[in-house]
Amino acid sequence: MQAAHSVTATVGHAPSVEGIHSSDDAARKAKSESLLSPRFYTTDFKAMDAIDVSPLRAEWDAMMAEYEGDNNHDHFQRTPEFAAEVAQVFSRVSPELREEFLDFLISSVTSEFSGCILYNEIQKNITNPDIKALMRYMARDESRHAGFINQSLRDFGIGLDLGDLKRTKAYTYFKPKYIFYATYLSEKIGYARYITIFRQLERHPEKRFHPIFRWFERWCNDEFRHGESFALIMRTQPHLLKGGNLLWIRFFLLAVYATMYVRDHTRPMLKAAMGLDPTSYDYEVFRITTEITKQVFPISLDTDNPAFRAGLARLFMIQSKMDAAKQRGGIVGKLQQLSCAVAGAATFARLYLMPVHRHELPVNVRVAPSW
User: pTM to 2 decimals?
Assistant: First the structure.
């Protein structure tokens, strides 16, 4: 789900939870262009067409066989029990939790659909049989995810018109290597987020306030496999994982973690309803993601460092002040926003310059979704 495919944010305007009462409200939120909102991407199709996966042919063919086997082909179906539970949601959640949950669903649909569009556009514009097949399979998966979430939005009477969203939302150009770094992280952190939620609600089923959470385990394994695909692509191009490109890897790691931390702390009731503390949850997700990404990234962030944690907390504090300044408006509000933007950039820079962990890449690229 929400992995995001929004991974370039550092600090900025969080998706304020305004009233979401209609499909028009949902569409406006999905089309919004803030630093934390999911984006739609396009890339260099000629460069994608030139990718050669032959150095890892055995691993690649095994992965493609998994896609072809399509073990989730019957997973995204609503059962009678799903409908019965949905009918109880409206009486179990407060208006405030409802708003945060809707914001979560809209962001998730947009993020999943972003992947669907990107992968579909790549496969339509290339001839490379390996990459074309991969993109077709991943677009298939993301389409299922987006459609399934959108059904839950329709339960609230605010489903999104995905065709209109595709036509009217702005697109951002990313070089292929940025797509690799960003989407790999998006898919892997998406897995870590949703498996952590699934395990929590397995232990505490009384906190499962919506049936969609029952689908998270097999669902996030799709996300995991998508990340494996980009891991293989990057390992076939070793130059992407050394030299000056390490600076980009460091940037995307920090941007993804900072974005998640700020966004999660703007939805405190959603995590509380699941019995999760946003800070503890985020650092557990970071821990899992760090362990996974050692398969392809030779560096990882020191997320246990007290200075790192203080920096993320400061980003959220700056974010809160930014929101208050925006609501205030006028010249004073604009000056306060500018001050917050400068403080946020300085904090991000300090985090970026912190020492990182370095390690050797494993011989075997692929890892199993064992969390």
Answer: 0.88
